[in-house]
Amino acid sequence: MRTLNDLRRGERAVIARIAGVGGDEITVRRLHEMGFDDGVEVEMLHRGPVGGDPLALRVGSMVVGLRKALAGMIEIEAAAAFAEAAE
Fold first, then answer.
1. Overall pTM surpassing 0.90 (yes/no)
2. Which of 12, 13, 22, 72 could connect to 76 by a Cys-Cys bridge, CB 3.0–4.6 Å?
């Protein structure tokens, strides 16, 4: 499955789930507090200049900076595919 790290600039997707955190409930809670919830649309705005870290993402109506390590834990689906499944 694709993760937030796979998005290109300007591409949008929908969060499918947070995976690969190895039982780290604090990290999962922090991501949810920042708006990374299942079904929320995200858009890649910008990648940092050194190795593409950090990422600037639009999450719902907020802009959030996120390290690539955390972005790799957030699985996504194409925004169109999510909309079709909801119908």
1. no
2. 13
